[in-house]
Amino acid sequence: MRLILILLVVFIGASAQTQKLAAQPKFSGTWKGAAFSNTEAVQFIYELELKVIGGLIEGVIKKQNNNNEVSINKILGQKKYLSIEFEEKVIRSKSKTQNIIPPKIYALKYNLKTGYLEAFEDSLSGMKIVFFKDKFDFKSKTKSLETTHWVSTFIEDYNNGISAPEKKLEELRSFVFKPIYFDVDKSMIKEEYHKELYEIIKIIKSHSDLRIQVIGHTDSDGSDFYNKHLSKRRAQKIIDFFTQNGLRRDRIVIDFKGELHPVESNTTDDGKRLNRRVDFSFI
Predict the structure, then answer these.
(1) Which terminus of the chain, N or C, has less C-beta within 10 A?
(2) In the predicted model, what is the mean pLDDT of residues 99-105?
(3) pTM of the full structure
(4) Fold assignment, 175-282
C-alpha cells in the first residue's frame, strides 16, 4: 500500500511537471512590439530576434523612435519560466548622435492567456512595452525596420483584449460552438449565455476573414408559419447582441429553420428544450 502511495505521488509530480513544461512558450524566434501609453501614443517600435539556450538569452533588437531613428543592439539575458530579462549592448545606431536611443534593460513576462510578452514601465504614465511573436526576415545588419504598418492594428487589438497572432490561431482551432437555448415561445437571451457570446465575438474580431452564421430553431409546438418567424426572432436577438457589443453586421449571416431541424425528438419535454435553440457556424 505504501509503495502504491509513493508511486502515485511520483506520478502526480511528474504529470504536473510535464504540464508545466508544456505550458512554457517557445521564446526563440522573431518578435515585433511597441512601447506605448494609455493614450496609444507610440514611443518606440521594435523588432527582436531571440535565441534561448538552457535559460540563457542572446539575440539582436532593433528599435525606432518617434524621429525615425533606429538603433541595432545585441541583447544578453536569461529566462525563468514565463519571465525573461535582457540588457542591450550597443552595436550601431542610425542616428547622428550615437546616444540618442540609449541602451536599456527589459524585464518582461509572457501572458499565457493572450500570448503577449509584456512589461509595464510606469503606472503613472501608463507606458507599457508589448511584444508578439511573428515570423519575418529579421535583418540584423539593415538599419531600418521591415515595416511599421502593423503598429496601429496591433495596439488596437491589444487594448481590445484580442490575443497575439499565434494565440489567435490556437483559439480558433480549439473553439467549439455551443447552442444558445430559449424558453418556450421566447426569444430573450438568458444572461447565462452572455459569456459564451462574448467569446464568439472575440474569435470573429480576431480574424478579419471570418464571418459567422446564426441559425434559429424551434420545437414543434405551434404552426409551421409561427415557428419560422419565432426562429427568426431568436436568431435576430443573437445578432442584436453581437452588433451592440462591437461586431459589424456585415460579418454576420442570419438563417432560421423553424421546427424543420430538430436535434432531439419533440415527443418529450427534454427533447423540445434542446430544439429551442440557436446554432452557429463559421463561414
Answers:
(1) N
(2) 74
(3) 0.78
(4) 60s Ribosomal Protein L30; Chain: A; (3.30.1330)
